[in-house]
Specification:
Layout: H1 2-5, E1 10-18, H2 19-32, E2 36-38, H3 52-74, H4 93-148, H5 155-164, E3 171-179, H6 183-193, E4 199-204, E5 209-210, E6 217-218, E7 220-228, H7 230-242, E8 246-248, H8 254-310, E9 314-315, E10 321-329, H9 333-347, E11 354-358, H10 372-384, H11 395-409, H12 413-428, H13 430-433, H14 439-446, H15 448-465, H16 499-502, H17 523-556, H18 560-591, H19 594-600, H20 606-615, H21 630-666, H22 696-720, H23 723-747, H24 751-793, H25 810-818
Antiparallel strand pairs: 1-10, 1-11, 2-10, 3-7, 3-8, 4-7, 5-6, 9-10
C-alpha cells in the first residue's frame, strides 16, 4: 500500500547509448515499461528528427496493414490473436517485412482488380440477358398496338405507330438499362425533348444487381425506346448518356435475339465459374494473411514506437552516441540496469550503456503502482486531478469510502445482490470479455471491481435498513410489543409505534431495523430522522478524516508551519461546531430516554440547539437543555471556533513575513531566494512544494481566500452530505411504489388467468427495477458519491497538481492502438 498511499520516489537519469545498441536497449526498456523519456529536441519538428526516414517507412507498413485489415474484414475472416506477443524484431527485419507486405498488397490489389473486372463483365452480361428477355415482350406490345390499335397506347403513340405501318422498315429503337429511381424523370424528359415522337417501354429487372466496385446492391430497369429518324436517335442517345443509362446492342429480328441470348447464357455460366475460383483464391490469400496479421501489427507498432522514442534523444557530434534523459522509479533502478544489459547483449557490442542518476529542479511525474483491483479507484482520483509528487493519494481510502457512501444512498439488499452478481460475472469471465469493444461496455468492464464492492456494500446497508425490494427480513423476531387494543391495526398497516409504550426494554433488535417498522404508519418519519442524522455523522467523520490526512503531507514536505497555522485551527473549527453536533446526535440516541422526554416535554431539536449556540450565546433554554452545564460547554466551543478563524487567517502570513524579514537582514539580496519560508533545508527544495515568495499582500490574500473557503465549506459541505439522506429515502420510496403498483397487484391475482397476469406483471416489474432502480438510481448514486469525494473529501488535503507518469511501455502502446 506504500506506493498507493504516496507515489513512488522518482529520479531523473541520463542515458548514454551507442547508436547500434540503442534500438535493442529501448526494445528491452519498452517491454519493462518503467522509464519515461524527456524530449531533448523540443525545437525540432517531426521532419527534422534523426530517425524520420525509419518512421516514414514504418508508417507505410502501417498503411499496408490497414489496407489488408480492411480487405480481411470485408471477407468476414476472423483475425487470430497470438498466444504470446512477439518481441520487437531487429532493424534488419524491416526490409523483409517491407518486401513481404509489398508482395501481399500487390497480390491482393491484383485479385481485387481482376474480380472487379469480372464482376463488371458479369453485370453487363446479366443486364444484356434481361434486356433480351424483355425485348420480345416490348416488340410484341408494339406490334399489337400497331395492328390492333390498343386503347392502352396513348393517342400520340398510336398516331406514331399508325404512321409507321407504311414505313415499318424505318422504325429504330435503343435498348438499355437505367437506375430504377431515375425512370420517372427519364420518361418525362424523353417525352418533352422529343415532343412525344418516341415510344418508351420499360420493365423492372427482378432481384438486385451488385455494384462491381463496392458490392452494394443496385436496382435497375430495362427499357426500349422506339423512334424514327437520325435526329431523334441523336437526341435519345444524349438523354440516355445524361441519365447514365447503359445502352446495349439488340438485334432487330427475334431469331437473332434468341441466338444472342443463348450465347450470353453460355458466357455467364463460364464467367460464374471463373468468379468462383477467383473468390476462393482471394479467400485463401486473406486467410493466410489473417493468421499472421496480429503478429505483424504488433511488430510494426513496437518498431515504430522505438524509433519515435529514439527521436527524443540527442545525437553527439560523432553520430555514434545517443544521449537521453528519463524519469524512472528509484526502487526499479536494478531492473532498468538489467534490461539495458540484455539489450547490450543482443546488440553484440563491447561498450556497455551508461545510466547516470542526477539531481534536477524539475518536478517529477506521479507514479502509483496499481493492479486490476485498484486501477478503477485510481482512475476516479486521477479524473479529479493527478496527485502532486509524493502527495497523499486518496485512492486507497476511496476503495472503502466510495462504495460505502454509494451504498448508503443505494441501500437495498436485493438491488445490491443483482449488482454484485453482475460484477462477479464480469470478473469471472474477464479474459473473454476483455476483447469486447464498445464505450459503454468498456466503462462497466473497467469498473467491474468498483461495481462488485458497491453491490457488496449495498447488500450490507440493505441489511442495516432491513430493506429488500421494499420488503423486510424477519430473522430475529420483533422487539416491539404492541398493545392488545392495537393488534387489529396490524392487519391494516395503520399501527403507530411509540417508543414509551410499545418498546420492549433491554431487548433491542440484534442487527438493523426491526421488521415491524414495515407495518408502521410512522415509518417514514422515523427513517427520515434516522438517515438524516446518520448522513451528518458520516459527512463530518469523513471531512475530519480528510483534514487528518493533511498532516501527513505537512510532515512529509516538512511544512511544519502549516501544522500550527492550518491543521490545528481547522480541526478546532470543525470539531467545536460540527464535531459537537455529532456528539450530541449520539448523546440524543443513547442518553435521552423516556423519563427525560416526559420531564422536558419531548426531545430537544439538535438543529435549533446548534443555531442558538451562536444566536443565544451563553444561554440554554429548558426546552433545549440536554445535560447540566450545557451552556458553559457550548460557550467555550463557540469561543474556540471563533478564535480559530483569525488564527487561520493571520498566523501563517505573519510567520512568513517575519521569516522573510529576518532573511533580508541576515543574507544579501542575491541569497534571499534560497531561504525557504517553511523552514526546510536547501537539499529538500526539489521535493517539497514551494511557498510563494511574493509580497505580503499576495500572501495575505491567498490565506484569506483559504480561510473563507474552509469556514464556509464546513457548512456547505456538511449540508452537501445530506444527499446521502435524500437519495436513500428516494430510492426506498421509489422501490416501494414500484412494488405496490406492480408486483403486489400480480401476487393478489388467483387462478389460471392470475398466473398469466403475474408473469406479465413480474416482467414489467423486473424491467422497471433494472431500468429505473438499478441503472438510473445507481448512476445517480454513483455520481453523488463521486461528487462527495471530489469536493467534500479531497479538498481537505489534496491539491492534485501533478502530472501522470507515462512510461515507454509496449503494453500500453498496444492497448491504445487496439482501443
Amino acid at each position: 500500500m506504500g506506493s498507493l498511499f504516496r507515489s513512488e520516489e522518482m529520479t531523473l537519469a541520463q542515458l548514454y547509448l551507442q547508436s547500434d545498441a540503442a534500438y535493442h536497449c529501448l526494445s528491452e526498456l519498452g517491454e519493462l515499461g518503467l522509464v519515461q523519456f524527456r524530449d531533448l529536441n523540443p525545437d525540432l519538428n517531426a521532419f527534422n528528427r534523426h530517425y524520420v526516414t525509419e518512421v516514414r517507412r514504418l508508417e507505410e507498413l502501417e498503411r499496408r496493414l490497414r489496407y489488408m485489415e480492411t480487405e480481411i474484414e470485408k471477407s468476414n475472416i476472423k483475425i487470430l490473436d497470438p498466444s504470446v506477443d512477439p518481441d520487437a524484431p531487429p532493424p534488419s527485419d524491416i526490409i523483409e517485412l517491407e518486401t513481404q507486405f509489398e508482395k501481399l498488397e500487390a497480390e491482393i490489389r491484383e485479385i481485387n482488380s481482376n474480380q472487379e473486372r469480372l464482376n463488371r463483365n458479369f453485370l453487363e452480361l446479366t443486364e444484356l440477358k434481361h434486356i433480351l428477355r424483355q425485348t420480345n415482350s416490348f416488340f410484341s406490345e408494339a406490334t399489337s398496338a400497331m395492328n390492333n390499335g390498343s386503347n392502352s397506347v396513348r393517342e400520340d403513340e398510336a398516331g406514331l405507330l399508325d404512321d409507321t405501318r407504311s414505313r415499318s422498315s424505318q422504325l429504330s429503337f435503343v435498348a438499355g438499362v437505367i437506375n430504377r429511381d431515375r425512370v420517372p424523370t427519364f420518361e418525362r424528359l424523353l417525352w418533352r425533348a422529343c415532343r412525344g415522337n418516341v415510344f418508351l417501354r420499360y420493365k423492372e429487372i427482378d432481384g438486385e444487381l451488385k455494384d462491381p466496385a463496392t458490392g452494394d446492391p443496385m436496382f435497375k430497369t430495362a427499357f426500349v425506346i422506339f423512334f424514327q429518324g437520325d435526329q431523334l436517335r441523336t437526341r435519345v442517345k444524349k438523354i440516355c448518356e445524361g441519365f447514365r443509362a447503359t445502352q446495349y446492342p439488340c438485334p432487330d429480328t427475334a431469331a437473332e435475339r434468341r441466338e444472342m441470348a443463348m450465347g450470353v447464357a453460355t458466357r455467364i455460366e463460364d464467367l460464374s465459374t471463373v468468379l468462383s475460383q477467383t473468390l476462393d483464391h482471394r479467400y485463401r490469400v486473406l486467410q493466410a494473411v489473417a493468421k499472421n496479421f496480429r503478429a505483424w501489427s504488433i511488430k510494426v507498432t513496437k518498431i515504430k514506437s522505438i524509433y519515435h522514442t529514439l527521436n527524443l534523444f540527442s545525437v553527439d557530434v560523432t553520430q555514434k552516441c545517443l544521449i537521453g534523459e528519463c524519469w524512472c522509479p528509484v526502487t526499479n533502478l536494478d531492473e532498468i540496469h538489467q534490461a539495458l544489459r540484455r539489450g547490450h547483449d543482443r546488440s553484440g557490442l563491447s561498450v556497455m550503456p551508461i545510466l547516470n542518476v542526477m539531481k534536477s529542479s524539475h518536478t517529477p511525474p506521479t507514479y502509483n503502482k496499481v493492479n486490476k483491483f485498484t486501477h478503477g479507484f485510481q482512475m476516479i482520483i486521477d479524473a479529479y486531478g493527478v496527485a502532486s509528487y509524493q502527495e497523499v493519494n486518496p485512492a486507497p481510502f476511496s476503495i472503502i469510502t466510495f462504495p460505502f457512501l454509494f451504498a448508503v444512498m443505494f441501500g437495498d439488499f436485493g438491488h445490491g445482490l443483482v449488482m454484485f452478481l453482475f460484477a462477479l460475472t464480469l470478473i469471472l469471465k474477464e479474459k473473454a470479455l476483455s476483447k469486447q469493444k464498445g464505450e459503454i461496455f468498456g466503462s462497466f468492464f473497467g469498473g467491474r471491481y468498483i461495481i462488485l464492492l458497491m453491490g457488496a456494500f449495498s447488500m450490507y446497508t440493505g441489511l442495516v435498513y432491513n430493506d429488500c425490494y421494499s420488503k423486510s427480513f424477519n430473522i430475529f423476531g420483533s422487539s416491539w410489543s404492541v398493545g392488545e387494543t392495537e393488534l387489529h391495526k396490524v392487519q391494516t398497516d395503520t399501527i403507530t409505534l411509540n417508543l414509551d409504550r410499545d418498546f420492549a426494554r433491554h431487548n433491542p433488535y440484534p442487527f438493523g431495523l426491526d421488521p415491524v417498522w414495515q407495518l408502521a404508519s410512522n415509518k417514514l418519519s422515523f427513517t427520515n430522522s434516522y438517515k438524516m442524522k446518520m448522513s451528518v455523522v458520516l459527512g463530518v467523520t469523513q471531512m475530519m478524516f480528510g483534514i487528518a490526512l493533511g498532516i501527513f503531507n505537512h510532515l512529509h514536505f516538512r511544512n511544519h508551519v502549516n501544522i500550527w497555522t492550518s491543521f490545528v485551527p481547522e480541526v478546532l473549527f470543525l470539531g467545536c461546531i460540527f464535531g459537537y453536533l455529532v456528539f450530541m446526535i449520539f448523546f440524543k440516541w443513547i442518553g435521552v430516554d423516556s423519563s427525560f422526554r416526559s420531564a422536558t416535554g419531548g426531545a430537544p431539536s439538535l438543529l435549533i440547539m446548534l443555531i442558538n449556540m451562536f444566536l443565544s450565546f451563553g444561554n440554554v433554554s429548558e426546552a433545549e437543555k440536554f445535560y447540566s452545564g450545557q451552556a458553559g460547554v457550548q460557550s467555550v466551543l463557540v469561543i474556540v471556533a471563533l478564535i480559530a478563524v483569525p488564527w487561520m487567517l493571520l498566523s501563517k502570513p505573519l510567520i512568513l513575513y517575519l521569516r522573510q524579514r529576518k532573511a533580508r537582514q541576515t543574507y544579501s539580496p542575491f541569497d534571499s531566494n534560497s531561504i525557504q519560508d517553511d523552514g526546510q533545508d536547501v537539499q529538500h527544495v526539489e521535493s517539497a512544494p514551494k511557498e510563494s515568495q511574493s509580497s505580503m499582500g499576495d500572501i495575505f490574500v491567498h490565506q484569506a481566500i483559504h480561510t473563507i473557503e474552509f469556514c464556509l465549506g464546513c457548512i456547505s459541505n456538511t449540508a452537501s452530505y445530506l444527499r446521502l439522506w435524500a437519495l436513500s429515502l428516494a430510492h426506498a420510496q421509489l422501490s416501494e411504489v414500484i412494488w405496490n403498483m406492480g408486483l403486489r397487484m400480480g401476487l393478489s391475482a388467483l387462478g389460471g388467468s392470475g398466473s398469466i397476469m403475474l408473469f406479465c406483471i413480474f416482467a414489467m416489474w423486473a424491467a422497471e427495477t433494472i431500468a429505473i432502480l438499478l441503472i438510473m438510481e445507481g448512476l445517480s448514486a454513483f455520481l453523488h458519491a463521486l461528487r462527495l469525494h471530489w469536493v467534500e473529501f479531497n479538498n481537505k488535503f489534496y491539491k492534485g497538481e501533478g502530472y501522470m507518469f507515462q512510461p515507454f511501455s509496449f503494453a500500453k502502446i498496444l492497448d491504445e492502438s487496439n482501443a
